[in-house]
């Protein structure tokens, strides 16, 4: 896992979900529902301006009593969010996300967004890494022809 880079090892061929700062919170909620995602990047062109998540909508819109139809994303987004470059490791992303309690982290180069990694993406990397480690240890301890599934079947 330490050598896995955010791009292309963790995410690749990603379709970004972006809206401009003037779009409404309802626009973001509709996009999230259509795409079945939990965060939208707020951009002007490819320039990252912020991020809006389900948590933001709950705390900054619903709990605050704002109208989602008239509230612009610029009023509730996390402006200038932390980012990592595509060459950053999965471990760096996991560390940053854990320290700051993020579930989504934009990937940017020179202020231009190129992707977004989620905690779910990183969980898949960790799971694959652990499964590989287990297989390698079993092969070392029992020989390369040994498999836990084969003995259970």
UniProtKB/TrEMBL annotation:
Domain annotation CBS: ranges: 10-68, 77-133
Organism of origin: Azospirillum endophyticum
SMART domains in the cross-refs: CBS
Keywords, comma-separated and alphabetical: CBS domain
Domain of life the protein comes from: Bacteria
Name of the protein: CBS domain-containing protein
Matching Gene3D superfamilies: CBS-domain
């Amino acid at each position: 896992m330490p050598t896995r880079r955010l791009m292309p090892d963790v995410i690749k061929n990603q379709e970004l979900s972006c809206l401009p700062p003037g779009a409404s919170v309802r626009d973001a909620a509709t996009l999230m529902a259509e795409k079945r995602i939990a965060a939208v990047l707020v951009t002007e062109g490819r320039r990252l301006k912020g991020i809006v998540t389900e948590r933001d909508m709950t705390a900054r819109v619903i709990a605050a009593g704002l109208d989602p139809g008239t509230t612009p994303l610029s009023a509730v987004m996390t402006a200038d969010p932390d980012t990592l470059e595509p060459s950053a490791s999965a471990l760096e992303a996991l560390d940053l996300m854990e320290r700051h309690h993020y579930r989504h982290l934009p990937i940017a180069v020179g202020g231009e967004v190129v992707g977004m990694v989620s905690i779910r993406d990183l969980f898949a990397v960790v799971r694959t890494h652990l499964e590989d480690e287990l297989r390698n240890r079993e092969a070392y301890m029992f020989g390369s022809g040994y498999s836990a599934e084969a003995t259970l079947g």
